């Protein structure tokens, strides 16, 4: 067991656990976007930052990737943490305003406006899909490409992947990508699962009678309107 | 080459090499570093080689091709040994002569480096200031080593340190030595190298350990790692060998970026040669120490310089940092313990063991030992690589080694540490360079890039440049780094293109702090530094961009437009009238000038033409366009006919009346513009004639009185009433004016009282304030100067007084006394030159201490010599008296022209606030004084300034007063003043514009003009004026040129007609 201080409480957590796991175990809420149980921690969204250390040497780290260490002093909701989280979610909101997940988080953090130029991206590059594909589906069909502004997720060279089994797991874990699930425009789809699998609803005039494995399927929702 | 199997054999090899080397034999050393390649050293090498072969000189003189020497500004160069003569910017034709001279033991003095400060040739390399102030421990070898010959390295003491380490056979001792030396990582963060090694040594090495040389140098403007790898790759190999021995590492990797082909080539050769000699591989030098180095090539991602990203890149994965802990020293490449050090750190290791840790730790400062290589680039005279001990001040690097600024623009900041670093303003140049003080100042050491910036560098643009780099180079994993840099760039782009608001700056700062706080790796955490440090030291520049919509460095295009127009306080469209002049449309040209400037003919003569100072013809290395001379041509040519100034609209019914106090350029300009807006104006003037300083101070030889008279005459009309001989405070008060029914008052009484010297004896007869002297002459024709005249001061009124005195009867000589040097004189350059040509003597670096008099009559002045000290806050060098250097100068007249201020008493009685220097305090935006309805502008606010500034103040005040009287906010809404009217450009053949030389207007000869008040400068002949106008680069076209319609496919007319309905 590792002994550390979290929000002033002396606690001990299991060896090998991350700060996020420790906080969740102890009941301190930490918002996350890119983290998902069952997938390896990645630290992309920066929402789960917590403050560690003391005085001028204190710094913010992502709790999902930082291992619990003996004697560490952690604050999960200090003023610095909260103001950083608010700016992070504001940035997310500015890029991807249509995601309900992001809207809810922003709302919970008390962010009521975003001050940047509005974008409408359908991906925040949190990498959940990449990890899902590789770690849970053992496919590794998709991954990150390029860096900086041009970073994106996709199959190598944008060629239809041979290892993709069209499972749709990538879409299932996506916190932002409702727009990606436009089965009617397969060229926009990453895996093309919905289009290629011809889910039961596709091509049907009436919806609702059949069970769909993507529930709720936004494509269906959009088509309904 | 056979393998060496013991350290003794290594020493023997060295002895043989020493014996074989013919020390003292003349040799020609040519740098073939990348920078010199670019400037043509390959050609020099070819010519030298051929010459030596053809004449069979190879046994009498040797030729050595080496890596970078550092003085890249001056390449290609030849170093001739043993005399150490340093020939810079060598021409191919000079090579044989240099070789012959070296053979004969001579020096070709005329080809040697010339010190621009002294103008003298430097006989030896180390006399050159650039080299003199450096301590070249790492770079010092490069001129004696051919990087592709390991023997050269061994000959110069290479691998001695390795031999010493292997002989001693105590890895722990090596680590202790490195710890003792205090060496800190040269990659930027400054982690103690010894401590890192100790950790690696303590890790279990069952599966092997790695030492890595990080040569992924990607900062814009930094190239010291490349130069070390190119010039002395063996030193890096030796360092890594020692490191591996100390830590028990088994494998070495040099991670070099593929953009460094020469470095990779030299390193590959060096690795092979070291392996051939048995210095790499199994059982090195017969010991049981085995170690090999491989090279990994990076594809040029900046982030791969970060150690965890580097590790992933070496492993063949995407270069993307990961969370530390675990640190690479625990889990590095393939999960094995790894130490990563910078090229320069490795190159320092052999040095430490060769000279001893104690000796090493004495170089530099306590917390940061050793030397550091900086690549000094930017707006500085000597660019190149410099190696200095830690703790040297930035000032010494910039001024002594770098040779100071190239042109007249002052250096304002140094950017250290590349994109992750920050800017250090000139005020902090006394900061010693070491890891901690740089971090405190908000920057970092980084790998050692040092970009010098002067006044022509816009700090917003600098931040934007780095942010553009970072948004492309962020790996993109952390959302805040990827999106944060993009958003910061977006905000900076808004600010630099005029769309910024103060909210932009706040948001930018908040975002920058968040990015710094919430990102994971070094790149992200420092990505905000360019923004934060420029905001910290140059916030005023940001505010200037968002509030005033101005970019003073004239860099941000969307705020500047054409530089000539942007620098003119009146916003005169210089490009436009120059273009019209070129077309022969002189009257139109005149109207363009007249539109913004009520005094075209005056400004055509006495304006300080800031438009020319920033003309792109001049800033790009040529001669600026003679804009003022062209204006003179237009006003002389068209002035008389097209001068009919637009008549003002008749006064509006019941329009409120405005009083203007002072009929100088500011007052008259305000009156004119107010009358144009339909307000009846009354102008009160204390003197008998209008014109203010134009009439009182500026002598007739610069501004003929009839020209001035005509210009003023044209401004007066039924809306403007002029009342001369009425002075504020004496004849009327502001309150009185308000009571008379004036709804607004503009105070522009100028600065007419000369400042006193405040030294003993100043009240002696014969000591004259310059304004009294000039006024007496210009208004009444009195000649107050006689005998030997001294003029104290260096401004325009001092030069005017001196030149006027020279024209007075009974004057024997005129001497200008100035406390700084001629360079710093605030007077216009051409005025000073003209005064000297006429025979005025100039005594600089002197300050008056006491006025000597006999019987109340001036006899002379006691002066003390000054020397110039470091620049003060204003950036000008501060004069400091040299004790014991006093001397007396006998004089009959002493004119004091050190500065002027306004009539404080008149201001106080009017209830107006004035500062200690006598200047009136106004709101910067509205020009309102503390009394409601009373505005002020011109010299009374600014202190003595230029004509064009006064006119601009009058014009601004007119706008503010008009808005005030209409019940609006008097503050002006600033907007960028961009060119709007398209004038067809002249057809100029390519290159013709650059070749033509600047036109110089005719002038009276110095001998002719001394005795008369006739105007000195004449008008350009029409042909010359048009030719000069043709030189204009037409910066406006970028904004005004109509967008060309997309080209239509060419179809026969008939077919086209058939198609279109």
Q: Compute the gyration radius of chain A: what is it? A: 20 Å
Mean pLDDT of chain A: 81
- CATH third-level topology of the largest domain in chain B: Rossmann fold
- Poorly predicted runs of chain B: 1049-1061
In terms of structural class, how would the helical and strand content of chain A be classed? alpha+beta
Secondary-structure arrangement, i.e. CATH architecture of the largest domain in chain B: 3-Layer(aba) Sandwich
How are the strands of the largest sheet of chain A arranged? 2-1-5-3-4
Task: Tell me the CATH architecture of the largest domain in chain A.
Answer: Roll
Strand content of chain A: 5-15%
Q: Walk across the major sheet of chain B and give the strand order.
A: 10-9-13-11-12
Number of helices of chain B: 45
Short structural summary:
The complex is a heterodimer of chains A (225) and B (1061). With 225 residues, chain A is α+β, with helices and mostly antiparallel strands.
Task: Describe it.
- The complex is a heterodimer of chains A (225) and B (1061).
- Chain A has 225 residues and is α+β, with helices and mostly antiparallel strands.
- Chain A has seven helices and seven strands.
- Chain A has helices at residues 19-26, 79-95, 100-108, 128-136, 169-173, 193-197, 218-224; strands at 2-6, 9-13, 49-52, 59-62, 73-75, 143-145, 152-154.
- Chain A has a five-stranded mixed sheet, with helices on both faces.
- In chain A, helix 2 (79-95) packs antiparallel against helix 3 (100-108).
- Chain A is globular and about 50 Å long.
- Chain B folds into six domains: 20-127, Glutaredoxin (3-Layer(aba) Sandwich), CATH 3.40.30.10; 150-362, NADH-ubiquinone oxidoreductase 51kDa subunit (Rossmann fold); 371-555, Roll (Ubiquitin-like (UB roll)); 563-646 and 986-991 and 999-1040, Orthogonal Bundle (Fumarate Reductase Iron-sulfur Protein, Chain B, domain 2), CATH 1.10.1060; 657-752 and 902-965, FAD/NAD(P)-binding domain (3-Layer(bba) Sandwich); 753-901, 3-Layer(bba) Sandwich (FAD/NAD(P)-binding domain), CATH 3.50.50.
- In chain B, the strands form seven sheets. Chain B has a five-stranded mixed sheet with strand order 10-9-13-11-12, sandwiched between helices.
- In chain B, helix 10 (224-231) packs parallel to helix 12.
- Chain B is elongated, with a radius of gyration of 35 Å.
- The termini of chain B are far apart.
- In chain B, 54% of the residues are buried.
- Residues 1049-1061 of chain B have low confidence and may be disordered.
- The A-B interface holds A 42-46, 49, 59-62, 65-67, 69, 80, 83-84, 87-88, 91-92, 94-95, 115-117, 124-127, 143-144, 146-151 and B 301, 303, 318-320, 322-323, 325, 470-480, 482-487, 490, 503, 507, 510-511, 514, 517-520.
């Amino acid at each position: 067991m590792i002994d550390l201080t979290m929000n002033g409480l002396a606690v001990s957590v299991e060896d090998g656990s991350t700060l996020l796991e420790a906080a969740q175990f102890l009941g301190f809420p930490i918002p996350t976007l890119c983290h998902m149980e069952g997938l390896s921690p990645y630290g992309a969204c920066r929402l789960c930052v917590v403050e560690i250390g003391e005085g001028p040497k204190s710094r913010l780290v992502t709790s999902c990737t930082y291992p619990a260490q003996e004697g560490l002093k952690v604050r999960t909701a200090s003023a610095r943490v909260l103001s950083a989280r608010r700016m992070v979610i504001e940035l997310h909101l500015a890029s991807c305003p249509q995601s309900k997940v992001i809207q809810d988080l922003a709302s919970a953090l008390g962010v009521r406006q975003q001050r940047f130029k509005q974008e409408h991206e359908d991906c925040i590059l949190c990498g959940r899909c990449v990890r899902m594909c590789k770690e849970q589906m053992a496919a590794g069909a998709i991954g990150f490409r390029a860096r900086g502004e041009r970073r994106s997720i996709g199959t190598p060279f944008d060629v239809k992947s041979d290892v993709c089994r069209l499972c749709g797991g990538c879409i299932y874990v996506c916190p932002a990508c409702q727009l990606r699930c436009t089965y009617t425009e397969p060229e926009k789809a990453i895996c093309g699962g919905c289009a290629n699998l011809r889910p039961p609803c596709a091509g049907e005039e009436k919806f609702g009678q059949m069970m769909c494995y993507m529930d709720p399927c936004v494509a269906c929702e959009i088509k309904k309107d | 080459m056979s393998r060496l199997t013991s350290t003794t054999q290594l020493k023997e090899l060295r002895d043989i090499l020493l014996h074989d080397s013919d020390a003292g034999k003349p040799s020609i050393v040519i740098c073939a570093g990348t920078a010199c390649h670019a400037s043509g050293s390959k050609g020099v090498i070819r010519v030298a080689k051929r010459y030596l072969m053809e004449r069979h000189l190879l046994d009498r003189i040797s030729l050595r091709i080496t890596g970078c020497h550092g003085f890249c500004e001056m390449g290609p160069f030849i170093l001739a040994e043993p005399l150490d003569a340093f020939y810079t910017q060598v021409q191919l034709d000079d090579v044989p002569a240099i070789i012959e001279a070296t053979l004969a033991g001579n020096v070709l003095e005329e080809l040697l480096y010339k010190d621009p400060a002294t103008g003298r040739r430097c006989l030896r390399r180390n006399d050159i200031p650039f080299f003199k102030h450096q301590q070249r421990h790492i770079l010092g070898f490069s001129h004696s080593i051919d990087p592709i010959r390991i023997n050269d390295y061994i000959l110069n003491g290479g691998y001695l340190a390795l031999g010493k380490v292997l002989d001693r056979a105590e890895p722990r001792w090596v680590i202790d030595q490195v710890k003792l030396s205090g060496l800190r990582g040269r990659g930027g963060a400054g982690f103690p190298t010894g401590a890192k090694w100790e950790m690696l040594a303590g890790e279990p090495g069952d599966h092997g350990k790695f030492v890595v040389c990080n040569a992924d140098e990607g900062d814009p403007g930094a190239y010291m790692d490349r130069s070390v790898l190119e010039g002395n790759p063996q030193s890096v190999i030796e360092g890594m060998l020692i490191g591996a021995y100390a830590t028990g590492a088994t494998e070495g990797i040099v991670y070099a970026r593929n953009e460094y082909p020469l470095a990779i080539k030299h390193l590959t050769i060096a690795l092979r040669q070291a392996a051939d000699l048995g210095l790499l591989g199994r059982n090195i030098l017969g010991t049981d120490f085995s170690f090999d180095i491989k090279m990994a090539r990076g594809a040029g991602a900046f982030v791969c310089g970060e150690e965890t990203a580097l590790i992933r890149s070496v492993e063949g994965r995407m270069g993307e940092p990961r969370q530390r802990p675990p640190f690479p020293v625990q889990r590095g490449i393939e999960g094995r313990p790894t130490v990563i050090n910078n090229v320069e750190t490795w190159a320092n290791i052999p040095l430490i063991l060769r000279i001893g840790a104690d000796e090493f730790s004495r170089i530099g400062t306590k917390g940061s030992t050793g030397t550091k290589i900086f690549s000094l680039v930017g707006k500085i005279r000597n660019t190149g690589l410099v190696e200095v001990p830690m703790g040297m001040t930035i000032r010494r690097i910039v001024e002594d080694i770098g040779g100071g600024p190239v042109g007249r623009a002052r250096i304002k900041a140094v950017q250290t540490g590349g994109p992750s670093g920050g800017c250090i303003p000139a005020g902090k140049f006394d900061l010693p360079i070491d890891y901690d003080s740089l971090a405190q100042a908000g920057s970092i050491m980084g790998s050692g890039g040092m970009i010098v910036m002067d006044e022509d560098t816009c700090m917003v643009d600098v931040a934007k440049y780095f942010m553009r780099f970072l948004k492309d180079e962020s790996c993109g994993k952390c959302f805040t780094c990827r999106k944060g840099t993009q958003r910061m760039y977006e905000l900076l782009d808004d600010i630099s293109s005029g769309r910024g608001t103060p909210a932009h700056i706040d948001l930018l700062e908040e975002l920058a702090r968040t990015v710094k706080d919430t990102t994971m790796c070094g790149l992200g955490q420092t990505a905000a530094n360019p923004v934060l440090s420029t905001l910290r030291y140059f916030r005023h520049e940001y505010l200037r961009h968002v509030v005033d919509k101005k970019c003073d460095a004239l860099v941000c295009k969307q705020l500047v437009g054409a530089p000539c127009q942007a620098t003119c306080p009146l916003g005169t469209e210089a490009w436009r009238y120059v273009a019209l002049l070129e077309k022969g449309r002189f009257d139109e040209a005149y109207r363009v000038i007249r539109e913004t400037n009520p005094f075209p003919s005056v400004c055509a003569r006495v304006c300080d033409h800031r438009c020319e100072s920033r003309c792109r013809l001049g800033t790009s290395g040529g001669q600026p366009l003679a804009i003022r001379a062209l204006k003179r041509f237009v006003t002389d040519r068209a002035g008389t006919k097209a001068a009919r100034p637009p008549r003002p609209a008749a006064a509006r019914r019941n329009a409120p009346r405005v009083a203007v106090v002072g009929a100088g350029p500011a007052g008259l300009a305000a009156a004119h513009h107010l009358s144009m807006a339909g307000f009846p104006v009354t102008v009160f003037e204390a003197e008998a004639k209008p014109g203010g300083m134009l009439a009182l101070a500026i002598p007739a030889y610069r501004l003929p009185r009839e020209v001035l008279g005509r210009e003023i005459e044209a401004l007066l009309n039924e809306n403007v009433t002029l009342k001369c001989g009425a002075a504020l405070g004496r004849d009327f008060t502001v309150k009185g004016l308000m009571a008379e029914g004036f709804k607004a008052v503009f105070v522009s009484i100028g600065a007419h009282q000369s400042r006193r010297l405040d030294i003993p004896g100043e009240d002696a007869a014969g000591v004259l304030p310059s304004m009294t002297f000039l006024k007496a002459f210009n208004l009444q024709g009195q000649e107050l100067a006689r005998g030997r005249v001294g003029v104290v001061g260096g401004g325009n009124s001092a030069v005017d007084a001196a030149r006027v005195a020279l024209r007075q009867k009974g004057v024997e000589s005129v001497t200008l006394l100035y406390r700084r040097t001629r360079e710093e004189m605030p007077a216009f350059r051409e005025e000073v030159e003209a005064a000297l040509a006429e025979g005025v003597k100039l005594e600089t670096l002197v300050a008056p201490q006491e006025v000597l008099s006999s019987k109340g009559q001036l006899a002379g002045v006691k002066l003390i010599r000054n020397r110039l000290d470091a620049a003060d806050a204003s950036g000008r060098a501060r004069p400091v008296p040299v004790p014991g250097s006093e001397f007396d100068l006998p004089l009959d007249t002493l004119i004091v022209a050190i500065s002027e201020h306004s009539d404080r008493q008149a201001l106080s009685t009017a209830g107006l606030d004035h500062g200690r220097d006598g200047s009136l305090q106004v709101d910067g935006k509205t020009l309102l004084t503390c009394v409601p309805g009373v505005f002020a502008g011109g010299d009374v606010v600014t202190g003595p300034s230029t004509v064009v500034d006064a006119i601009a103040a009058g014009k601004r005040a007119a706008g503010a007063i008009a808005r005030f009287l209409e019940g609006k906010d008097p503050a002006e809404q600033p907007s960028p003043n961009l060119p709007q009217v398209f004038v067809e450009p002249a057809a100029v053949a390519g290159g013709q514009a650059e070749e033509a030389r600047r036109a110089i207007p005719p002038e009276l000869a110095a001998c002719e003009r001394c005795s008369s008040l006739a105007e000195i400068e004449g008008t350009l002949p029409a042909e010359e004026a048009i030719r000069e106008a043709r030189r204009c680069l037409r910066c406006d076209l970028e904004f005004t040129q109509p967008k060309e319609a997309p080209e239509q496919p060419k179809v026969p007319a008939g077919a086209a007609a058939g198609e279109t309905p």
